[in-house]
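Q: How do we represent a protein-ligand complex in a form that can be generated cell by cell?
A: Start from the inputs.
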Amino acid sequence: MHEMKYTLLALASFIATACTATAAVPTFTADVAPLLYGHCTVCHHANDLAPMSLLSYQEVKPWAAAIREAVLTRTMPPWKADPHYGKFTNDSSLTDREIATIKAWVDGGKPEGDPAKLPAPPSYSTDWKIGKPDAIIAIPRHELTAKGPDEYENFTVPTNFTEDRWVTAAELRPGNRKVVHHGHVQVVQAPTAKKAGAPADPQAEYRKYLMIHEGKLSWLRMDAPVINDGCVVDDNSYLPGSKPVDANFGAWGMLASYLPGREADVYPAGTARRIPAGSNLVFQLHYSHSTGKPEVDETSVGLLFAKEPPAQAAKRVDLGNHMLRLPAGDPNVEVTECHTFKQDMYVTSLTPHMHLRGKDAKFDVTYPDGKRETLLLVPKYNFNWQITYRLAEPKYLPAGTRLAIISHFDNSPNNPLNPDPTQVVRWGDASEMEMMDGWIEYLDKPLGSPQGKSGALHAESAPIASLPNHPPAPAPLPVKQ
Ligand code: HEC
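Then emit the C-alpha cells for the protein with heme C bound:
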C-alpha cells in the first residue's frame, strides 16, 4: 500500500514536471489580454452593458474563475450559431485553443506576466460609431417611473423626407443605456387615408378581425385559425391575404437595431438602403427599470446618406409565421414557415427573431435542383442575445430556391425566461407573446456589380405594409434632425 502511494506520487510529480516542461503557464499580458481585447471588452468596459470591465489585470483577476466557467461553457462571448454551418464576419467565438489558453492561465495561478508585453488596450468612445451622422432622428423625451414591469414602447416619428434617401449606415443609439435594454427602428409607410367610397376588401376586414390593436400593442385573437406548420404550402402562415410578394421586398422593414455588443448597421460597400419619401420610423424600445430611480430616455438613430447613387439597393425581407399557437406548458412546439424566392437573391445576413419562449432556429434552403443546405443553425436561441448573423460572402440563392425557417419554442416552466407557462401563447408584439420570424438582408446582384442603366434602383414597388410586423402608426410626433 505504502509503496503504491509512493509510486502514484512519483507518477503525479513526473506528469506535472512533464507538463510544465512542454507548456509554460500563459500570462495575462502576453496571452490572455489579447483574447479579452478581441472578444470581450467591446461589452466589458466601463459604462457599457456588461456588469464589469475586463480591461486591466486588476479588473480581470477577481473574475478569473467566472471567466474560466463562461468560456468553457461557451456562454461568453455570446455567439449562438452552430459552427458547422456558414461562415460569418461577426463571429465572436473563441477557438478551442484560445479557450484552453484562458483555462490554463486560470488553473496556473493567473500570473500577470511582463507588463511590457501588454498590448495597448482598445479605447471605446461614446461618439457615433458610424461617424458624424447626416441626420439624427430621435424619439420624443420618454419618462420612466422608478419601478414597474419592463416596458415595450413603440414611437412613430416621421422622417419628413420629401425625397427618397439612400442610407449607407444606420446606428440606433440609446439615449439612456441604463434603462434601454434593446431596441429596433423600422421604416414604415405613412398611413394613407382610405379612399372615400372604395369597396371594402373582405380579406382586409377578416385580417382586421383577427388582429387586435390596443394602445401601442397588437396581437392575434386567441380563437384565430392555428397554423404551426407554415411549410405545408409556401407562405402558409401569413395573416390571411397578406402574402409577401418578392417584388415588394426592400424598402420597408428594419433599419437598425441596438442590442448589447451589436455593431451599427453598415451596408456593404456600393449598396444602400432606401428610405422612401414620406416614410415614418417606428422605434420599438424595451425599457427596464433597472436603476430604481425615475429616468428619462431620448433614443435616436443616426443616418449616413450615400454620397453618390449606390450601385444597388441593400434590401431586406421579413418572413414569419403569424398564426402560431403554443399550448400552455408545452416544452417543444415546432413552428415553421416557408417561402420560395421568385428572383435571384444574394443573401448578406440572417436574423432569427423570437421572443422569450424561443428555443432554437434553423434556416434551410432547397435549391431548384433539389439540393439542400443549412444556412444557419442556432441551437440555443436566447431572447437576450438577438444576433444578426452576417455572412462572410453573400450567399447566392437562384430564383426558385425555397427557404424553410424551422423553430422550436419552450412554453414549459423549465424555460427560465418563460414569463408564464400557464398561458396559451399566440402572435403578438409584446415579449410575453410570441413571434417567429426570419429576417433576411439581401442584394439583387453580386457585390461589386456596376449600376444598371435601367434606373431600376428607383423602380421599387408597393410596400409590404400589410405584414403585421408593423404596428399601426399612431399620430406623428416631432422630429429632431
Ligand atoms: C456582446 C457583449 C458581450 C461580450 C462580447 C462578452 N460579454 Fe460577458 N457579459 C455580457 C453581459 C451583458 C453580461 C451580464 C449578463 C449575462 O450574464 O448574460 C456578461 C456576463 C459575463 C460574465 C458573468 C458575470 C457573472 O455575473 O458571473 C462573465 C464571466 C463574462 N461575461 C465574461 C466574458 C468574457 C471572458 C468574454 C469574452 C471571451 C465576454 N464576457 C464577452 C456581455 C458580453
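Residues 39-40, 42-44, 49-51, 63, 66-67, 70-71, 76-78, 92, 94, 260-261 surround heme C (CB under 6 Å). Residues 1-21, 453-481 have pLDDT under 50 and may be disordered.
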